[in-house]
């Protein structure tokens, strides 16, 4: 029922990726006419959804990273916790839309210090983002064993 309702509410922005696996995607933007900010929310509905399990989700937008991502993910998790056992996809979509509208209003390039010159844009290649987040180790147990054995070797010297 929830999927049918979302499909009728969001029309072309709602997409069924895989009906059997219950994978869906919705394109969300800050406004209908000429959106500044857009994000795709992909969800997988596990067998226990909504009564026992939350949706598995992925937020896709080139601008969404770091603190913006963390804040939005935390908001979605709060909504889930506040509505345990209930269908929450509509609430998630509307929360994301609210964040996009706020972002569009706050990023209106009226103030000159918000605008970047072309030189600044060229220099900002995003490398600093990569440095802030070390890669996740494939097997944390192996890594922990390696770190432990390495530190024990140092004690013997």
Automatic annotation (TrEMBL):
<dbReference type="InterPro" id="IPR016135">
    <property type="entry name" value="UBQ-conjugating_enzyme/RWD"/>
</dbReference>
<feature type="compositionally biased region" description="Acidic residues">
    <location>
        <begin position="120"/>
        <end position="130"/>
    </location>
</feature>
<dbReference type="GO" id="GO:0006446">
    <property type="term" value="P:regulation of translational initiation"/>
</dbReference>
<protein>
    <submittedName>
        <fullName>IMPCT protein</fullName>
    </submittedName>
</protein>
<dbReference type="InterPro" id="IPR023582">
    <property type="entry name" value="Impact"/>
</dbReference>
<dbReference type="Pfam" id="PF05773">
    <property type="entry name" value="RWD"/>
</dbReference>
<dbReference type="GO" id="GO:0140469">
    <property type="term" value="P:GCN2-mediated signaling"/>
</dbReference>
<feature type="domain" description="RWD">
    <location>
        <begin position="1"/>
        <end position="103"/>
    </location>
</feature>
<dbReference type="GO" id="GO:0005737">
    <property type="term" value="C:cytoplasm"/>
</dbReference>
<feature type="region of interest" description="Disordered">
    <location>
        <begin position="104"/>
        <end position="135"/>
    </location>
</feature>
<dbReference type="InterPro" id="IPR006575">
    <property type="entry name" value="RWD_dom"/>
</dbReference>
């Amino acid at each position: 029922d929830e999927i049918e309702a979302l499909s009728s509410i969001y029309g072309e922005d709602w997409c069924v990726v895989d009906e059997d696996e219950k994978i869906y995607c919705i394109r969300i933007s800050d406004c209908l006419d000429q959106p500044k900010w857009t994000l795709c929310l992909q969800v997988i509905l596990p067998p226990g959804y909504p009564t026992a399990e939350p949706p598995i989700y992925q937020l896709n937008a080139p601008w969404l990273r770091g603190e913006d991502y963390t804040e939005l993910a935390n908001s979605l998790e709060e909504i889930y916790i506040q509505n345990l056992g209930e269908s929450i996809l509509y609430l998630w979509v509307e929360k994301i839309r609210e964040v996009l509208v706020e972002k569009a209003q706050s990023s209106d390039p009226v103030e000159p210090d918000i605008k970047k010159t072309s030189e600044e844009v060229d220099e900002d290649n995003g490398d600093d983002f990569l440095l802030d987040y070390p890669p996740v180790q494939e097997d944390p147990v192996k890594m922990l064993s390696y770190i432990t054995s390495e530190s024990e070797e140092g004690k013997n010297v």
